[in-house]
Design goal:
Layout lengths: L11 H22 L10 E6 L9 H6 L3 E6 L3 E6 L3 E8 L2 E8 L3 E6 L4 E4 L47
Amino acid sequence: MSDETPDSLIPYDEIVQEALRAVVGRVLGEIVQGGSELPGDHHFYITFKTGAPGVSIPPHLRERFPDEMTIVLQNKFWDLDVTDEGFSVGLSFNQIPAKLSIPFAAITAFVDPAVDFGLQFQATVADMAPEAHDDAENDSPEHGDSPATPGNEDGSNVAEVDFGRKK
């Protein structure tokens, strides 16, 4: 018997990412159905890859944000439209109006700070490799021979999800 976890023939990571991106679509769709007014103190920070296929932003924004950009949907936005593949919205940057179209696959983060809710996504664009980085000091097991982590003594690859709800 091997200590290594076998490769899954089911793409669980992709399925979960797709389902979580659908949450973003549903939330934005609810806003459109409510007349494009954000209820209460809700507001959204949406981070996306500017070079991802299907992203449409003005050239001056692409030049300023060549890799990633975060937009805020709060008080001043217009023409929010949501489809199965993504959304488009009008925003103002330094008092210059701009129309942005963003596929859900380009989104890397969605946060609603009013209720301490946030989602992080892996980039799903095949031709967009992650930037090189130094290995974190905690990437390797301390004892070297055990794949187990605290809470996962059996070495399984199960992650606990906490959406940060206040209790």
